[in-house]
Amino acid sequence: MSHLRKDPLVKRWVVVATKRRHRPRKVEECPFCPGNEGLTPPEVLRIPEKKDWQVRVVPNLFPILGDHGETTRSPFYRSRPGKGFHEIIIETPLHNRHIAELELNNLKLVLDTYQHRLREFNDLSWIRYTLIFKNYGRRAGASLKHSHSQVVAMPLLPKRVAEELTSAKAYYRRHRRCLFCQIIAEEKETEDRIIVSNRHYLAFVPYAARIPYEIWIMPIRHQAYFDRVSDDEKFAFAEIIQSCLKRLVKVLDDPPFNFFLHTGPNHLDAGDYYHYHLVIMPVTTILGGFELGSGFYVNQSLAEEDAQRLREAG
Ligand SMILES: [Zn+2]
Ligand SMILES: [Zn+2]
């Protein structure tokens, strides 16, 4: 099983999960296809509950974090057991269907499932964060083609999320205003980084995009927690996610990509100063020595130009 090791220089936790080496490079039969349910561990959730499912959730056979966890013994270094959950959300029964081509109702079911899993893990007091993400394409880290996303529930607040919360909270204290609401107001004012919007959401290329065609999707209404959004909002969310992904497929010719959902952690009262948001990052570059050594990203493209191309691809 896995464990976590803390790097004392930068206070960063690393998950050591050696079992993941055994992930098969090639599988004979797709374990996510209907009829092959026996090839996955027993399911956690199936929607609808009868035979012809639309969405299925199963534990990951090669989890990043799992049931037991071990630690290492050192008087100096810190470690902790890699306890948590790692699940796969099979988004469709159709083997070759791109997520951008799912029926809207089907994608809404996927979002319902995200919410269901967040709520379930929120009930566990020792879980500090639940990250939902998707890898599409081998270069984005996906080992299976059949459309799926992943859920990792963990005993720590991830550094990235903690940084966002800290600066959003500081901004709120200083200005008595939500930083995310301010970003949305700013983007609506200038308009040149907006890709598309609907009744509930705004999709744009962020001002300081790290990579070409990075996309942020944010709720226009002030809301920190994704597990509290309504059905109407989830429909609108499904619509805008699909619209953004279709544009990416068109502009970058079906690129590999990652997306992840950041939501307010349930144990922190972030309601005043945070918005849940989805970040989509197409894999267009690899990180070089400068990025690795400095922590800076070098973006070869201009956010405003990327946004324009994505806007016009709709
Ligand atoms: Zn399949
Ligand atoms: Zn806000």
UniProtKB/TrEMBL annotation:
Keywords: Carbohydrate metabolism, Metal-binding, Nucleotidyltransferase, Transferase, Zinc
GO molecular function, one term: zinc ion binding
Keyword Thylakoid: no
Domain Galactose-1-phosphate uridyl transferase N-terminal: 2-158
Cofactor(s) for this UniProt protein: Zn(2+)
SUPFAM superfamilies named among the record's database cross-references: HIT-like
UniProt record similarity statement: Belongs to the galactose-1-phosphate uridylyltransferase type 1 family.
Record-given protein name: Galactose-1-phosphate uridylyltransferase
Species per Swiss-Prot/TrEMBL record: candidate division WOR-3 bacterium
